[in-house]
Write a structure and sequence with these properties.
The complex is a heterodimer of chains A (about 250) and B (about 350).
Chain A: E1 8-17, E2 20-30, E3 35-39, H1 46-54, E4 61-66, E5 69-71, H2 76-81, E6 84-87, H3 99-103, E7 110-112, E8 119-121, H4 123-136, H5 153-166, E9 171-175, H6 183-198, E10 202-206, H7 210-216, E11 219-224, E12 227-233, H8 239-253
Parallel strand pairs in A: 3-10, 3-11, 6-9, 9-10
Antiparallel strand pairs in A: 1-2, 1-4, 4-5, 7-8, 11-12
Helix pairs in contact in A: 5-6, 7-8
Chain B: H1 2-6, H2 15-21, H3 26-31, H4 34-52, H5 60-85, H6 93-109, H7 114-138, H8 143-161, H9 174-182, E1 184-185, E2 188-189, H10 190-208, H11 210-220, H12 222-227, H13 232-258, H14 269-279, H15 291-310, H16 318-340
Antiparallel strand pairs in B: 1-2
Helix pairs in contact in B: 4-15, 5-10, 5-11, 5-13, 5-14, 5-15, 6-7, 6-8, 6-13, 7-8, 7-13, 9-13, 10-11, 11-13, 14-15, 14-16, 15-16
Classes of the chains: A alpha/beta (about 250), B mainly alpha (about 350).
Chain lengths: ~250, ~350
């Protein structure tokens, strides 16, 4: 927040699907270490904006600067390699595969064997490192060979976040992380996000849950009809205030 | 929570608390593995048959025959496993076998070198696999439909190329070629050695290499694999090429063993191959299975076949028993996953 140079800077971002304009001329600066809540009703353009930031889709107009340099992500993998990880609502985990396999999917660790040029998977290290990521997040899971399908919803979030940590993501975008979870599991996920913040990572949180927003966010960005019309520090805003601002935005758009 | 778990008050800890923190022992993993149970079934059946028909079943001759017979299917099942792990299916393996066999026969008939015949056969399999792979992973057509197409196409091509005749006049290199598939080393048929070598190689590949891990990742969640940068298309394409290659390898061996090539070679084998992988624990939804399972599944089917034959059951009943075992295998799999979930 105090850092004057934004980590991620969007200028004039627009996204249209044929004649449908989803995002119009959005400027947004994200500073290192802050938690920015991105709010808005359905169809406000949040998801489209996130798709542009995460590399899933290309912006129709505008520029993105990451650490002061212009970037254009060709794919989510490309974004991941640049330190921008997105944790989707479905978490993009393979349920049957082990925790370690999920954390290291697409970036497996290998070690050389006797024959030159031949490398095999370094399972021991992947298990140890996965364990390290998960304990960093204080998730009470010890068997990294367990299939993800046997974990609770909160634990799965922890695995998905561990994957982002594995890619050393500086910016972690979380799409409705608590939407499918019960009260206890949601509390666990909020704790995970706090841990990320205290670890100096930047989080963009998309949420419909105003209580989550109030509990976590440093700054609130509200979109409506594809435009950003609120961008302010959380300050003393309450859940009701944010809900009202979202509704006011809808009224304006309609 | 952790202190509570290190010393749980007896009978007062929720089952999730315990299972969440305790590692699964090797024994537990074994008990929940399908290949393990299929191996048990195989041993029980072999023991029962050895007791019931000690001379006929437990003879060295019969052992030689059984192992050789399932080797052809087992080799194909290993390639099929690569495809099924990605969540795909390859229905064309039987036809690939027929086409590759005819190609081998034609090369030999034209007095080609045995090595040339082997190479031509393998290339034929790889080529059909490549067609499958390109259409499935790059054009995006469903695997079931594409391989159904090549099942028909490759068989038809085999009939055309062979002019619907049996090819058996193998020319000067015929004996050398036939020795590959028909010979044996220390009392074990060559195809069995090939199967063993392939099974070991694939076990290592599936368990210890990036490529193998990618197959599981794609079958586990293709979208997640793509998002994390797994080269999904390339790996899927390669899986079909591997399946085509193992089908062709099996063709090379079986043509050598039989000393002739007919265009009907491998007809209906696709079902036996798929059955082997499924009985061995592969999941048709992808992400689960292994080389050992494929081999043991093929072995079980052959032992069932052989046992029924020796027990004097009408050969026409074989299909019914194999079908029964497929359904039982899937049922067992379902029960196990329910219990462990």
């Amino acid at each position: 927040m105090t850092d004057p140079t934004p980590l991620l800077s969007l200028r004039g971002i627009g996204k249209s699907y044929g004649p449908v304009v989803a995002v119009r001329d959005v400027d947004l600066d994200i500073f290192p270490g802050e938690v920015v809540a991105l709010c808005g009703d359905n169809g406000a353009g949040k998801s489209s904006l996130i798709k542009v930031i995460s590399g899933a889709e290309e912006a129709t107009s505008g520029t993105i600067n990451l650490r002061g340099k212009p970037v254009a992500f060709a794919s989510p993998h490309d974004a991941l390699e640049n330190g921008v990880a997105t944790i989707y609502q479905d978490l993009a985990l393979a349920p049957r595969l082990s925790i370690a396999q999920n954390v290291f999917m697409g970036s497996e660790l290998t070690r050389p064997v006797l024959v030159p040029f031949l490398r095999i998977l370094d399972k021991k290290r992947m298990i140890a490192e996965s364990q390290r990521y998960l304990s960093q997040l204080s998730a009470a899971v010890t068997d990294m060979t367990r299939p993800v399908e046997r974990l609770s919803g909160g634990q799965r979030q922890a695995v998905a976040i561990s994957r982002a940590l594995r890619w050393n993501a500086e910016i972690i975008i979380m799409d409705e992380p608590t939407a499918a979870l019960g009260v206890k599991e949601s509390a666990l996920v909020l704790d995970l996000i706090r841990k990320l913040k205290s670890d100096g990572r930047t989080v963009i949180l998309i949420s419909h849950n105003m209580r989550d927003v109030v509990a976590l966010a440093d700054r609130v960005v509200i979109m409506g009809a594809g435009r950003k019309y609120v961008d302010r520090p959380l300050g003393d805003l309450g859940a009701d205030d944010i809900a009202h601002m979202i509704m006011a935005g809808n009224a304006k758009a309609a | 929570m952790s202190s509570a778990v290190t010393r749980p008050p007896p009978g007062r800890v929720a089952i999730e608390d315990v299972t969440g923190l305790r590692e699964r022992s090797l024994g537990q993993k074994l008990l929940s593995s399908q290949p393990f149970w299929v191996t048990i079934a195989l041993i029980v059946m072999a023991l029962a048959m050895s007791w019931y028909q000690p001379e006929a079943f437990a003879s060295a001759d019969n052992f030689f025959n059984i192992t050789r017979n399932f080797a052809f299917i087992g080799i194909m099942a290993i390639g099929m496993t690569a495809v099924i792990l990605t969540g795909g299916i390859d229905l064309s393996v039987g036809s690939i076998m027929g086409l590759a066999g005819v190609v081998c026969g034609l090369v030999l008939q034209a007095e080609g070198h045995w090595a040339l015949a082997v190479l031509a056969g393998l290339l034929t399999g790889a080529a059909v696999g490549l067609v499958n792979g390109v259409l499935i992973s790059y054009v995006g057509l469903p695997a079931f439909v594409v391989t159904l197409g090549t099942l028909s196409g490759a068989r038809s091509l085999a009939i055309v190329l062979s002019e619907n005749k049996m090819i058996y006049e193998f020319g000067p290199w015929g004996d050398a070629f036939n020795a590959i598939g028909g010979g044996s080393i220390v009392g074990v048929a060559n195809p069995v050695w090939v199967l063993l070598a392939l099974a070991v190689t694939f076990s290592v590949i599936l368990n210890f290499t990036n490529w193998g891990n990618y197959l599981y990742a794609i079958g586990g969640n293709e979208n997640a694999a793509r998002l994390t940068g797994v080269p999904v298309r390339r790996i899927k394409l390669q899986a079909y090429v591997v399946s085509g290659l193992t089908a062709a390898l099996s063709a090379v061996l079986i043509v050598g063993w039989q000393g002739s090539a007919i265009n009907a070679l491998g007809q209906g084998y696709e079902l036996r191959v798929i059955a082997s992988t499924v009985i061995g624990g592969a999941d048709l939804m992808g992400g689960q299975g292994g080389a050992y399972g494929a081999v043991i599944g093929a072995a079980l089917i052959e032992v069932i076949r052989n046992s029924l034959l020796m027990a004097g059951v009408d050969a026409n009943w074989q299909g019914a028993f194999v079908g029964l075992f497929i359904v039982l295998a899937v049922l067992l799999q379902r029960i196990r996953t329910r219990r462990s979930a």
